[in-house]
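User: Here's a protein and a ligand (NAP). What would the complex look like?
Assistant: Let me lay out the input and then the predicted complex.
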Amino acid sequence: MDLGIKGRRALVCASSKGLGRGCAEALAEAGVDLVLNARGAEALETTAEAIRAAHGVSVTAVAADITSEDGRAAVLAKAGDLDILVNNAGGPPPGLWSDWGREDFIAALDANMLTPIALMTALMPKMIDRGWGRVVNITSQSVKAPIPQLGLSNAARTGLTGYVAGTARQVAPFGVIVNNLLPGIHATDRADALDGGVSQKEGISINQARANRAATIPARRYGTAEEFGAMCAFLCSERAGFIVGQNILLDGGGTNATI
Ligand code: NAP
């Protein structure tokens, strides 16, 4: 299928590894020129070079913390005009409800709610002027079904989801299409960190922790960044213009719900 976005320009935040990289690769395969971002410059440049070599698209790499005001300013200054925005950042740490104080919540809200909102606020006006834009926010399965130990994530991502629900409908008349992608467990460094925590807490190997988690998923495995990226590229495509303000789960059936 031709996604109809060859020659468009996309910013993919937090994209040197994992799900962000999966989105970047799939957009590049569709002929989209990229601005990539992560904090670590070395891994970011390695990813940028690999994508240039594989897909022949233009890739600008900006090493910065996307959750800081300075970081966002640096990325936006280098990015230029953009047709597509993929919002992503690291997730907050796990814990118990009583672990967290105001500062922890402010940090989580900054990273996983206010950062994507700031980038949408900065970039959507020009998309509206041009009559075309796509925004995909990487959130989490925890928006539909809470993950008890990820209270900070549950809170921040649900806040973003509420904002998107209204905003997507305000910008759709101008050709700007905003949706959220909700990952369940995917095989990335983040999953390794979560499984490492379980392995320590339960005194089992990391492989056993992984196998135990996979056994709870109807697909009996973790998702891949490639599968995730393919859905992201579709939502950023010409074909997705009638999908507005949706929350799309990619979780191998892990969320036990009818709708
Ligand atoms: P990952 O494999 O750990 O990759 C994270 C990527 O984001 C790296 O490129 C990292 O590079 C970059 N990054 C992290 N913090 C950043 C920041 N402040 N500014 C710029 N770049 C940053 O994580 P992932 O599994 O792809 O997860 C992506 C998001 O999906 C996270 O919010 C995660 O909580 C959420 N999620 C993941 C899963 C899963 O199973 N993987 C499930 C549900 C939700 P640097 O470290 O160099 O900055």
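Summary: Residues 14-20, 37-40, 43, 65-67, 88-91, 138, 140-141, 183, 185-186, 188-191 surround NAP (CB under 6 Å).
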